[in-house]
Fold GHKL domain-containing protein.
Amino acid sequence: MTITQILSPSPLQWTNIQIMLEALLAGHLVALKLQKRSHYWARVFITSLLSCIIVASIPVNQMGTPSVLLSGILLYSCALLVLTVALYACYRETAWTVLFCAVAGYTIQHLLSALNTLAERIHAYDALSSLFPAFPGLRIVTYLALLLSVYLVCFSTVCRPARTLGHIMVENRSMIVLTIVAACADIALSFYVFQLFLDYPSSPFGVVLALYDALLCALLLYMLFELAINRSLKERASTVERLLDDQRQQYAMSADIIERVNIKTHDLKHQLTVSPSVQNLLHDYESVYHTGSSALDLLLSQKHSEIENLGIDFSCMADGQSLSSLADDDVYALCGNILDNAVNALSAISPVSERLLVLTIKTQGELLLIHEENPFVGSLAYADGLPLTTQENENYAHGFGTASIRRIVENYRGTLYLHDRDGWFYVDIAIPLPSEDPANAR
């Protein structure tokens, strides 16, 4: 392709460039929350420019020529490949994750193209132009409104719900296979509809074809993100379960260590060689927390130093015996996650005098009630009843604390209500008490 052709593209080449820009916009919309490479906006500009030049260089024959279908397949395949490479140059992700975003973006663009064709076939643009003849640019404005509507609907209905569950990961075999199948389906669908439009250039059947094309794109997009959401939910549940198992193992080891220390402490108190000051220290150690729940006592004893070092004013009114219907390791994990989240939020509070933490555990009627409240900095967004993480550099366990809390509460057929008001965050848990058998509900 010569410089002159690049500077003055033909109408068909302008169409290719338009398709590429639409696909790039959709692809970046899907990949919006992925980890970006350095000089992100410069990369976006350069890759967009190069992508347009590449697709404009693809030879496209006029309608009705023998090789038009071959050039059409070449265009659709090349557009998807260029989109994938462009996204990979902008985002620091695996090739499969980038391919997923590229296929999803290409499908969104295909949906836009189908709806645009449908509008042309039903003469919607011509009707608007006749109604408002004083606005020569109305067709462009209407097209941009359609583009904005399609992309916003796709973002709010499929893209955004998938991202609220966390990072889009495409590593397992089923996701990879579906992504490849979706890519082939996109190209095949484009080719098939293109062929039908050649066979029926002005037939009313074209309206049905455009609507059929749009519905298939919407279905394909739904399948892509539905599998991604389901996979994320399974990964999240598996992670929560592993974290709970780790916490239960930690409780078992800590309880064993504390029991041994208590035995040694008891023996030391009865040795004549121990000075009165050491006797007082041992007494303080034995009497830090006595709530009636050994698991809660162990947890509070472990958190005591951290809470004190951060200058947190900790108010704990806990009837540990009310926790007897819960397994000890669940008590340890449940209350541990509540306190960990609160301490993490309070560490950002300044001045230190405003670091307040209230924990209340009691029974009321046939319910075990657990309430926690603490101030926090910033604002919270919620997804599926749980607050979204606000940390830029989240570690492996971050963001799963509240999910672990809900998993334990649901295991005992309880309810969890997380909310915030006026700069305070509240945790309210209600678990029905067993009517007869006080054994664990698990």
Remarks:
- The first strand starts at residue 313 and ends at 318.
- The longest helix spans residues 205-269.
